[in-house]
Design brief:
With about 450 residues, the protein is α/β, with parallel strands linked by helices. It is built from eight helices and 40 strands. The structure holds uridine-diphosphate-N-acetylglucosamine (UD1) and calcium ion (CA).
């Protein structure tokens, strides 16, 4: 039986920010959101977040997460004081309490499961997650005897220069037998450099207590300032890229590419340099994205190319070529084997299969049929100053260079618009023996 408590009440002074530290974003999710999600597979009986600094903002940011309980720490007197706030909420509880720092966002669920298992198998009163860091600066140092029993945890600020040499650090993850901890909590003292009630002082007051080293120390990086936030982002990116490369995706100059965790890629996708894939983007087999592209919340089907282009909230079907320098600005559906070329902007627009808009055009609120050819510089005038209007273009229709289609307007099939025209009225289907849809 385990209850989880997440420490999220601190301001995070070292971030030098108005935003509470735990709400800073790491790859599209807040720090504390990541911590909360990491415990989901443990199926804890309760999940409690201790909030304080800008409590309302933190609660609002987490309101979509089901069953999370908030406990307020109205003044922030330290991590031990934060856990003291749980006393009235866990009265009579007889299981374990897993405590996580809200600013340690890269822990894997498997690591936490393993940690909890060790705690329970050994029937420890307390288990502390530790790691040996090449650069332990800023962390609490953990001192153990030869049997791995924790003797002392000393905060960086309270260490003597000799103690600071110890590279074994406290990761900020603990498991306590709650009944034992509850007895200690009221007696914590603030005899330290920060005049705070340290949770770490409780660790050495219960027995038996054990330190467990984490296998991959990158998981336990705490975020106290913007440098650590950036370093954590790099670690997260490395994890995501490794996963996709192992799954058959080629990343060229991977250091210059960023990929959100939420993106899905198929084998034989090639991502070229300086490309950024965000949100709920899916890219299917054989597509080649970049160099220099940004794809957000979009579905890119098979064998698509997208060079130096921005695609947001859109769909591109098989075999289409996008760019260089195209902008699919939202709710765009590009059919199969289409071409959207240089300096073309599309918004709320559907291009039928085999259609081309190769140069210098804006199509907004437009639906085209199949095999339409939009000439260079064709613009849909979709906005009359008050409302947006649609343009409908039939199959095989061609617009000449520099034509303006004033919406609302419908051009039929096989229409030919001469270069430089401004069209303000509907044009019916033009007769042509070849006028068949494809
Ligand atoms: C803490 C540990 C340190 C460990 C490090 C790991 C203590 C005393 N020290 O130090 O040993 O190496 O984490 O990252 O615990 N918080 C509250 N209420 C408070 C104070 C803090 O909820 O009154 C929350 C913060 O929002 C944060 C977490 O507790 O999420 C840790 O606080 P922080 O001030 O960052 O502790 P560290 O100095 O990093
Ligand atoms: Ca911290």
């Amino acid at each position: 039986m385990v209850v989880v408590a997440i420490l999220a009440a601190g301001r995070g002074t070292r971030m030098k920010s108005n935003l509470p530290k735990v709400l800073h974003s790491l790859g599209g999710k807040s720090l504390v959101e990541r911590v909360i999600q990491s415990v989901e597979p443990l199926q804890p009986e309760r999940r409690m977040a201790i909030v304080g600094y800008q409590a309302q903002e933190v609660k609002t940011a987490l309101q979509t997460i089901p069953d999370i309980e908030f406990v307020e720490q109205t003044v922030q007197l330290g991590t031990g004081h934060a856990i003291q706030q749980l006393l009235p909420h866990l009265e009579g509880y007889n299981g374990d309490l897993l405590i996580l720092n809200g600013d340690v966002p890269l822990l894997r669920s498997e690591t936490l499961k393993h940690f909890l298992q060790i705690h329970q198998e050994n029937q420890n009163a307390a288990t502390v997650m530790t790691a040996k860091l090449p650069n332990p600066k800023g962390y609490g140092r953990v001192f153990c005897d030869e049997k791995n029993v924790v003797q002392q945890i000393i905060e960086d600020k309270d260490c003597t220069p000799a103690q600071r040499e110890n590279q074994r650090i406290n990761a900020g993850v603990y498991c306590f037998r709650w009944q034992d901890l509850a007895k200690i909590l009221p007696h914590l003292e603030a005899n330290n450099a920060q005049k705070e009630y340290y949770l770490t002082d409780a660790v050495t007051q219960v027995t038996p207590v054990m330190a467990v080293d984490v296998e991959d120390y990158q998981e336990i990086g705490g975020i106290n300032d913007r440098l650590q936030l950036s370093a954590a982002y790099d670690i997260l990116q490395a994890r995501i890229k490794e996963k996709w490369m192992k799954a058959g995706v080629t990343l060229i100059d991977s250091a210059s590419i960023t990929i959100d965790e939420t993106v899905e890629l198929e084998p034989d996708v090639i991502i070229e340099p300086q490309t950024h894939l965000r949100g709920n983007t899916v890219i299917k087999a054989g597509s080649r994205i970049g160099p220099g592209s940004l794809i957000e919340n979009s579905l890119i089907s098979e064998n698509v190319t997208a060079r130096y282009s921005v695609i947001t909230d859109s769909t591109v079907k098989d075999g289409s070529q996008i760019g260089p320098y195209a902008h699919l600005r939202g709710n765009v559906e590009v059919g199969e084997k289409c071409r959207v070329g240089n300096f073309v902007e599309l918004k709320n627009t559907k291009l039928g299969n085999g259609s081309k808009t190769a140069h210098l055009s804006y199509l907004g609120d437009t639906t085209t049929g199949n095999k339409v050819n939009i000439g260079a510089g064709t613009i849909t005038a979709n906005y009359d100053g008050k409302n947006k209007h649609r343009t409908i273009i039939g199959n095989n229709t061609k617009t000449g260079s520099n034509s303006v289609l004033v919406a609302p307007i419908t051009l039929g099939n096989d229409v030919y618009v001469a270069a430089g025209s401004t069209i303000t009225e509907d044009v019916p289907n033009s007769y042509s023996p070849s006028a068949s849809s494809c």
